[in-house]
Known about the structure:
Elements: E1 3-9, H1 13-29, E2 33-39, H2 45-55, E3 60-68, H3 74-91, E4 96-103, H4 106-113, H5 120-138
Parallel strand pairs: 1-2, 1-3, 3-4
InterPro entries: LS (IPR034964), LS/RS (IPR002180), LS/RS_sf (IPR036467)
Organism: Sphingosinicella microcystinivorans
Keywords: Riboflavin biosynthesis, Transferase
Amino acid sequence: MARVLIVEARFYAHLNDMLLAGTRAAIEDAGHSHETITVPGALEIPGAIALAAESGRYDAFVGIGVVIRGETYHFEIVAGESARGLMALTMDGLPVGNGILTVENEAQALVRADPKQKDKGGEAAKAALTLLELKGRFD
Ligand SMILES: Nc1c(NC[C@H](O)[C@H](O)[C@H](O)CO)[nH]c(=O)[nH]c1=O
Ligand SMILES: CC(=O)[C@@H](O)COP(=O)(O)O
């Protein structure tokens, strides 16, 4: 049984609740365990995963959150840098799934967070577990 750490950026609680449901369901359906920690925003997700990975307590990681475009360039920073940080961790050999929604509005986020619709949380969990399985094959 793999131990999966879910790191959620709880910027929009109601959307995160849906993402979390899909993420947890995918992990449980695959027969693995999960633990969840919460950070303020998407920019903190990669750092939290890096810190947790050093503990050696987890086999895979899923970052989830919602970034909705506002009035300024900050959207590009938050969306781009959180994705870049997760990709850097993946390229370092960590099985990481990216479930951070980067959207124009709440309507787009709802469709993607809902486990009964696009289920991006479950998709990110499955991606992390796929990388974990590949890691086992190549080790
Ligand atoms: N605007 C959103 C943010 N912004 C906050 C940043 O992620 C970060 O916590 C802050 O800049 C302090 O370092 N975060 C989201 O997750 N979603 C947003 O829409
Ligand atoms: C993605 C963001 O950082 C955004 O929510 C912030 O809104 P604004 O650009 O209007 O400050």
